[in-house]
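Project outcomes to date are best conveyed with an example. Our students and postdoctoral researchers have been running inverse folding experiments weekly, and each run begins with a structure described purely in C-alpha cells. The record below, which covers 136 residues, was selected by the lab manager from last quarter's runs and is presented without edits.
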C-alpha cells in the first residue's frame, strides 16, 4: 500500500504553529489573519507546511503563502502537484476587483501589501478562494 496523502508531520496545524513560533517576518500578523481566513472557508480546508511556508489544502494543496513577496505577502493559488483536466480556457474565477494575477491557466497570485490592504481585500479574496477550491 502507498503512503496516505497528506498524513506527514508537515501536513498539520501543529507544524504550522511550530513554524510560526520561530518565524520572523514583518507581516507575521497578516499571515495569522490569512490562516484564519483559509481555515474558515470550509471544514474540508486544512493547513500544513509545504515549500517552507504555510500552505492550504482540501484533498490537494491549492494555496501557499509567498513569504518572499517584495512588498507585503503573496498568495500563490495552484491546483496541487498533479495536472488536472480543466475546462477550456483554464480556471474561471469571478474577480471583479482584479486581485488575481494569472501566472498560467491553472495558477494565479494575489498580493497583499499590509494589514490594511488585507482588510480591504478580505471579502473579495474569500469569494475568490471559495471559487478556487471547487477546482481542487
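After processing, the design step wrote out the following sequence:
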Amino acid at each position: 500500500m502507498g503512503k496516505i496523502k497528506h498524513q506527514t508531520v508537515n501536513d498539520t496545524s501543529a507544524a504550522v504553529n511550530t513554524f510560526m513560533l520561530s518565524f520572523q517576518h514583518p507581516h507575521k500578523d497578516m499571515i495569522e489573519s490569512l490562516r484564519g481566513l483559509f481555515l474558515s472557508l470550509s471544514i474540508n480546508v486544512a493547513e500544513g507546511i509545504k515549500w517552507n511556508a504555510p500552505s492550504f489544502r482540501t484533498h490537494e494543496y491549492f494555496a501557499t503563502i509567498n513569504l518572499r513577496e517584495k512588498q507585503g505577502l503573496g498568495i500563490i493559488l495552484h491546483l496541487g502537484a498533479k495536472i488536472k483536466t480543466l475546462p477550456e480556457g483554464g480556471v474561471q474565477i469571478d474577480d471583479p476587483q482584479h486581485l488575481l494575477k494569472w501566472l498560467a491557466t491553472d495558477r494565479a497570485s494575489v498580493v497583499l501589501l499590509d494589514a490594511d490592504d488585507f482588510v480591504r481585500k478580505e471579502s473579495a479574496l474569500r469569494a475568490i478562494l471559495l471559487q478556487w477550491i471547487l477546482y481542487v
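The chain has three helices and six strands. Strands lie at 46-50, 53-57, 61-66, 73-77, 101-104, 107-112. The training component of this project remains on track.
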